[in-house]
Design goal:
This protein has 402 residues and is an alpha/beta fold. It has 2 domains: 116 residues, Aspartate Aminotransferase, domain 1; 235 residues, Type I PLP-dependent aspartate aminotransferase-like (Major domain) (Aspartate Aminotransferase, domain 2, 3-Layer(aba) Sandwich), CATH 3.40.640.10. Helices cover 46% and strands 13% of the residues. Strands 2-10-9-8-7-3-4 form a 7-stranded mixed beta sheet. Strands 1-12 form a two-stranded parallel sheet. Its EC number is 2.6.1.1.
């Protein structure tokens, strides 16, 4: 009996969670954590939106704790589809979208990966380099083979558009591609609107399937409509798409794990069939999703006053991140750094792909008690008016001989 688990070795630490552990263990009064992937205010504190607090007040004591259906909250899903496909979408009207509540964006990706494996068992998923590390884990554990495509250009710290287009053209016809709808994680580099149109056109020519992970709608620019532009372009061009949505970042509902998976189909009959299969996959995985976060989201989005408050609050969060980008770049330039820091303000969203080498990151941690992942990804949410001068000086010190 005692030998059953003898062959089990400790799992490697998650690189992001490991950064937080090291930060918490550091006793330095000057320590800074710019590795965390969650929003913080200018005092470095977690935020609960007022629209969320008000929704919770309205929900409290009014509902039972019964199971949701396997597909989740119908009302929450309906409101979520309006955000991604458009308030007056013909696809919603014609009931062409198969959609289920998911366990945030991670759960939506995993559910789709399993769906892909079941109904296209010989297919692969094309994933950008780099991408959110968990994307690789999700499709690997769903046993979907992975290929990569060019995305980030290290020299310009921008988009490798030529490499990306070549990889789209050279992929086998009818390939699955994972795309970040906005605020690409970890680089903060997004295609322009015109580049998205060219990508969509090439997808159409090759018959590829676009699966969008949209974890930051509203949080990137402060405008949910603007942040859904990439998806709208593909819809205008007649693509069938898949979308993973999450309310972790844009409503601060990290721990509620509330999201949505949707798949646009050819007609209502096909959508019903696809939804039934998504529910069938969910049943042995987690049976049905949790109710509280879904109630918060549906309460906010279905009430004009609360939705207006949410739009105001999500813009405040986005604007703070954008402001910190500007301030960090200005601080570095004032120090006389010989390097170009334009990419800090050219990129968008929570993360700045700084261009720092792993050895420079190590110096930031060992000499200045600044914690981030070794790929140089800075979470702008961890940057505040109180620590930005210290952070900029430290970055200047480790890069001035570069």
């Amino acid at each position: 009996m005692s030998s059953w688990w003898r062959s089990v070795d400790p799992a490697p630490k998650d690189p992001i969670l490991g950064v937080t552990e090291a930060f918490l263990a550091d006793s330095s009064p000057n320590k800074v954590n710019v590795g965390v992937g969650a929003y913080r205010d200018d005092n470095g504190k977690p935020v609960v939106l007022e629209c969320v607090r008000e929704a919770e007040r309205r929900i409290a004591g009014n509902l039972n704790m019964e199971y949701l259906p396997m597909g989740g909250s119908v009302k929450m899903v309906e409101e979520t589809l309006k955000l991604s496909y458009g308030e007056k979408s013909e696809f919603i009207r014609d009931k062409r979208i198969a959609a289920v509540q998911s366990l945030s964006g991670t759960g939506a990706c995993r559910l789709f990966a399993d769906f892909q494996k079941r109904f296209h068992p010989d297919s692969q998923i094309h994933i950008p380099v780099p991408t959110w590390a968990n994307h690789h884990n999700i499709w690997r554990d769903a046993q979907v083979p992975q290929r990569t495509f060019h995305y980030y250009h290290p020299e310009s710290r921008g988009l490798d558009f030529a490499g990306l287009m070549d990889d789209i053209k050279n992929a086998p016809n009818g390939s699955f591609f994972l795309l970040h709808a906005c605020a690409h994680n970890p680089t903060g580099v997004d295609p322009s609107e015109e580049q998205w149109r060219e990508i969509s056109h090439q997808f159409k020519a090759k018959g590829h399937f676009p699966f969008f992970d949209m974890a930051y709608q509203g949080f990137a620019s402060g405008d949910p409509e603007r942040d859904a532009k990439s998806i709208r372009i593909f819809l205008e061009d007649g693509h069938l798409v898949g979308i993973a949505q999450s309310y972790a970042k844009n409503m601060g509902l990290y721990g509620q794990r509330v999201g949505c998976l949707s798949v646009l189909c050819e007609d209502e009959k096909q959508a019903m069939a696809v939804k039934s299969q998504l529910q069938l996959l969910a049943r042995p995985m987690y049976s049905n999703p949790p109710v509280h976060g879904a109630l918060i989201v549906s309460t906010i989005l279905s009430d004009p006053g609360l939705k207006k408050l949410w739009l105001k609050e999500v813009k405040v969060m986005a604007d703070r991140i954008i402001g910190m980008r500007t301030a960090l770049r200005e601080n570095l330039e004032k120090m006389g750094s010989p390097l170009s820091w334009e990419h800090i303000t050219n990129q968008i969203g929570m993360f700045c792909y700084s261009g720092l080498a792993p050895e420079q990151v190590d110096r930031l941690t060992s000499e200045f008690h600044i914690y981030l992942t070794r790929n140089g990804r800075i979470s702008m949410a961890g940057v505040t008016t109180g620590n930005i001068g210290y952070l900029a000086n430290a970055i200047h010190e480790v890069t001035k001989s570069a």
